[in-house]
Specification:
The protein is built from 13 helices and 13 strands. The chain is 44% helix and 17% strand. The protein starts with a strand and ends with a helix. The protein has two domains: 214 residues, 3-Layer(aba) Sandwich (Rossmann fold); 97 residues, UDP-galactose 4-epimerase, domain 1, CATH 3.90.25. With 339 residues, the chain is α/β, with parallel strands linked by helices. A seven-stranded parallel beta sheet has the order 3-2-1-4-5-7-11, sandwiched between helices. It has a two-stranded parallel ribbon with strand order 6-13. Helix 2 links the parallel strand 2 and strand 3. It is globular. Helix 1 packs across helix 9, helix 3 packs parallel to helix 5 and helix 5 packs parallel to helix 7. The chain binds 2-amino-3-ketobutyric acid.
């Protein structure tokens, strides 16, 4: 007998931490957590099974298929944008090859269970791209179907995987069946930068905002690697997690597309620096621009239009920048770095 469970890949990452915390609170959810590394102590007690392994390992995928009956797969494992740019081939292998393996696992599961398996894929604002700053600055809040011209390997990987998700959803279904007899129910969110009070990101390009804040909370100086006028959208981790759980529990009939934008606030680097200084007046934050990383964020939108998510599954962030700082980030950071 296969064991009923949900699968989370990349479980030890930033989003994995938040998602495991939220799903653990739901009754009757058996969480199988997969990561290259052992899970942090803070989350290992919250999962039912912890597996260490690589999503590119076919024998591991077969083992998962043989041992479990997954109704939902949250495929979070990925190489983020800055790291991906240093190693495009590995990024492609992990971000595309790994996703393909997980989609095939979902397909096998859907076929053997005779129902559709839900598949969550975190996409990114990196799927968008502009010809230059003029186009970025004059384009306003970007809708899902415009400016999909990624200029990073990470953005290319994410956009292609969104298409793969659509292909698997539409192409693999019981002959003559209606929408609800598809083997895979693929749902995806294009995330902006995310700020967590508990973890610091690694290898991303939106990292300058969470790094600035955590450095200030630790009493360390920080050199921001993008210009002060740099602007992309952000949100807090609790809002990112509630968005995933809302989208995944939304009735199928409400879902008009597979990929949605969401966002909460969109400060420039300098506006965020000023906000950090309000809470940590002694913080030492300077600018030391990395041309490569600047180019990447300059190709991402200053803001996105999240009206489709609002209409279809009532997306609404709990935190704007002020509330996010006051009610979530600062109290948690004070706790975390109190010594
Ligand atoms: C990154 O910076 O790579 C990610 C993203 C915006 O998808 N945080």
């Amino acid at each position: 007998m296969r064991k009923s469970a949900i699968l989370i890949t990349g479980a030890n990452g930033e989003m994995g931490h938040g998602l495991i915390g939220a799903l653990h609170q739901k009754n009757n959810v058996n969480i199988v957590a997969l990561d290259l590394n052992p899970l942090d102590g803070s989350i290992s007690a919250l999962v039912n099974e912890e597996l260490m392994g690589n999503i590119l390992d076919q024998s591991l995928i077969e083992q998962l298929n043989g041992e479990y009956e997954f109704d939902t797969i949250y495929h979070l494992a990925a190489i983020l944008s800055t790291r991906a740019e240093f190693s495009p081939q590995s990024a492609h292998d992990v971000n595309v090859g790994g996703t393909l393996n997980l989609l095939n696992l979902a397909l096998e599961q859907g076929r053997s269970q005779g129902r559709s398996v839900k598949f969550f894929f975190p996409s990114s604002i990196a799927v968008y791209g502009f010809s230059g700053l003029d186009e970025k600055n004059s384009s306003g809040a970007i809708k899902e179907d415009s400016f999909r011209n990624p200029s990073t390997i990470y953005g290319c990987n994410k956009l292609y995987c969104e298409h793969l998700g659509n292909y698997y959803t539409n192409n693999y279904q019981r002959l003559g069946a209606e929408l609800h007899h598809r083997y895979i129910d693929f749902r995806s969110i294009r995330f902006p930068g995310i700020i967590s009070s508990k973890t610091i990101p690694a290898g991303g390009t939106s990292d300058y905002i969470p790094e600035m804040l955590h450095a200030a909370a630790k009493g360390k100086s920080y050199k921001c690697f993008v210009r002060e006028d740099t602007q992309i959208p952000f949100m807090t981790m609790p809002d990112a997690i509630q968005a995933i759980t809302h989208l995944m529990s939304a009735p199928k009939d409400n879902i008009s597309r597979t990929v949605y934008n969401i966002r909460s606030f969109s400060p420039t680097a300098e506006e965020f620096r000023q906000k950090v200084l309000e809470h940590y007046p002694k913080a030492q934050i300077d600018y030391e621009i990395s041309e490569k990383r600047q180019k990447m964020v300059d190709s991402w939108p200053a803001d996105t239009d999240d009206s489709m998510a609002k209409n279809d599954w009532n997306w609404a962030p709990a935190f704007n920048l002020d509330l996010g700082m006051k009610d979530y980030l600062i109290p948690d950071l004070q706790q975390m770095y109190k010594n």
